[in-house]
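TL;DR need structure tokens for one chain.
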Amino acid sequence: KMPYNSRPVSGQKIPWAGTPPRIDGDLGEWDRRPAVAGACDPPFESYRATLFAAYDDTALYLGAEVSDPH
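>> reply
TL;DR here they are.
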């Protein structure tokens, strides 16, 4: 078994993008409140990910911040 976080996500409201975010690697303009975060179980808990999403009439936008201790 892989040591990943096994907590389920039961539901998440994805916000309307309004203005589409720039796809440039900078998540500073994203609405970060509706985030889903997770981490691996010990001893790998320093591996983490936070996921963001937004949508508009033409696209679903996904962003992620991922930490890797190496």
